[in-house]
Amino acid sequence: MGLAERLGEVVGRAHVLTDPEVVAGYATDWTGRFSGNARLVVRPADRDQVAEVLRICREIGVPVVPQGGNTGLVGGGVPRDGEVVLSLTRLTGLGAVDPVTRQVTVGAGVTLAALTAHAMSAGLDFAVDIASRDSATVGGLVATNAGGLRVLRWGSMREQVVGVEAVLADGQVVGNLGGLPKDSTGYDLAGALVGSEGTLAVITAVRLRLIPAFTHRATATLAFDRTEDAVTAVAALRALPSLTSAEIFYDDGLRLVCAHRRIAPPFPAAHPVYLLVECTDNEDPTDALGDLVADLPALRDSALAIDEASRRTLWTHREAHAEAINTLGPPLKLDVGVPPAEAAAFERDVRALIPETATLVLFGHLAEGNFHVNVVGAPDEEALTDAILRATATRGGTISAEHGIGTAKAPWLPLTRSLAERTLYHSIKHAWDPDNLLNPGVLLTAE
Fold first, then answer.
1. How would you classify residue 422: left for phi > 0, otherwise alpha for psi between -120 and 50, otherwise beta?
2. What is residue 38's predicted lDDT score, i.e. its pLDDT?
3. What is the spatial distance between Cα 277 and Cα 289, in angstroms, rounded to a whole number?
4. How confident is the model at residue 31 (pLDDT cuts 50, 70, 90)?
5. What are the φ/ψ torsions at residue 82 (nearest 5 degrees)?
6. Which end of the chain is more exposed for a tag (fewer CB within 10 A), N or C?
7. pLDDT for res 155
8. Is the distance from CB of 87 to CB of 43 less than 8 angstroms?
9. Dihedral (C-alpha) 237, 242, 246, 251: value to the nearest 10 degrees?
10. 66: number of CA atoms within 13 Å, CB side?
């Protein structure tokens, strides 16, 4: 009996995909830049089916690529050389919300949008929010330690995870979903899996913290001449306990979004730098935000959302950047972070590195010093990647703030991780997955 037949007995024949045209959809990532070929795609429905699939693949010696919503941007969730794609999109269980601990257990295949709606139905909310919320799944968010639009107030995915259930490459189940507020019993296995990018085990369920669902919000776009002025503004705005988001973008990106979405810009006149800020609270934070904004130095203009429609428009100016950029062609996408005090200098570094024939669009999460660098038309993308990542490291930054390392950035990991640290990474990988069957080539390279 062949592999497809054996897996079909576990998950049902309809959930073992072998048609090349169907499989191709799982073998290319959202950017279209990273693709390969898969032996087949298998879609288990629960943890036990995941465990049996992994046992069979290990017995035969076939590597496995775990995949969620396939919204990754660094080649970490697509097959490269005939692996089995283990799609987790059927693991969509939603546990009851615990109002006492403000926690919930959900399956790895639950989308961020579904998780948020589930929390909201219980009068709570989920802290992490990203533009791909309708497709990105909880398992992938944990595996990449996703950040997004509200890290300023609530932290990245790591801060939301209370427990993880996962299956090792040999089919053994590890982890705990109890959600105890206190538990000092050895190594933090859940912590090890956050950011592991599918290289240690396959995440099947997660216990998550929830946050209050605030009833009021105030949203504004602020205009400045320089990134330095926006950084200064963020420092002042941190005095507001309700501050939740501080997003930076530039006039070239705004013009691209407005043309793509056919919407008006926030101001009649153009400005070089824009900062989108949002405050959330159970009392209207508009006055507090307005009073602070009025005293910001170097502020050129401000646009305050007066209703939900205008709020959504202000957010579209920022959130539609990725789709607008894609209309120019497949971009080189880099997700980097520097200390916020270095953000303005880093912006200048990047602009100086871009060839005249290429188009650069920058945006990101300014409070964390996290820039999304998008370049279309660079003649030598590898050389440009190397230059930008080295500039990031020189500024004391990270080559991946929230997207992960994947295969795209694995060669540059030595820029920010020492030999001792990388050796430890390899030792951890070998302890969890001694046969190197889970996502081989992702995060770690042969050294």
1. alpha
2. 94
3. 9
4. confident
5. 80, 20
6. N
7. 96
8. yes
9. -80
10. 33
Through-space distance between the first and last CA atoms of the chain, rounded to whole angstroms:
38
Q: Concatenate the DSSP letters of all residues of 48-102 into one string.
A: HHHHHHHHHHHHHT--EEEESS---SSSSSS-SSSEEEEE-TT---BPPPBTTTT
Cβ count near 283 (within 10 Å): 11
Beta pairing, strands 83-87 & 38-42 = parallel
User: What residues form DSSP beta bridges with 286?
Assistant: none
Contact (CB, 8 A) for 147 and 402: yes
Residue ranges of alpha helices (H) inside 278-373 are 286-294, 308-319, 321-326, 343-353
Please write the tens of the pLDDT for every residue from 342-385. Answer: 999 999 999 999 999 999 999 999 999 999 999 999 999 999 99
Q: How many whole angstroms separate alpha carbon 59 and alpha carbon 79? A: 19
pLDDT tens digits, 131-142: 889 999 999 999
DSSP secondary structure string, 349-379?
HHHHHS-TTSEEEEEEEGGGTEEEEEEES-S
Q: What is the mean pLDDT of the segment spanning 440-446?
A: 88
Distance between CA atoms of residues 335 and 352, nearest Å = 18
Contact between residue 168 and residue 135 where contact means Cβ atoms under 8 Å apart? no
Which two tokens mark 193? Answer: 């899996």
Q: How far out from the chain centre does Cα 224 lie?
A: 28
Instruction: Say if residues 91 and 139 touch (Cβ distance below 8 Å).
Output: yes
pLDDT confidence bin for 30, thresholds 50/70/90: confident
Tell me 211's DSSP state: E
Domains belonging to the chain, first-starting first, are: 3-87 (3.30.43.10), 103-212 (3.30.465.10), 216-322 (3.30.70.2190), 328-405 (3.30.70.2740)
Which of the residue ranges 287-291, 383-387, 406-410 would you say has the lowest mean pLDDT? 406-410
Sorting pLDDT into bands at 50, 70 and 90, what band is 330? confident
What does the DSSP assignment read for 120-152? HHTTEE-S-B-TTTTT-BHHHHHHTT--BTTHH
Residue 153, CA distances (Å) to 149, 159, 212, 242 in order: 9, 11, 12, 8
Residue 357 to residue 360: CA distance in whole angstroms:
10
Contact criterion met (CB below 8 Å) for 241 and 180 = no
Residues in the chain: 447
- Residue 111 Ramachandran class (φ > 0 left, ψ -120 to 50 alpha, else beta): beta
171 near 51, Cβ under 8 Å?
A: yes
Q: Are 156 and 145 in contact (CB under 8 A)?
A: yes
Q: What is the amino acid identity at position 306?
A: I
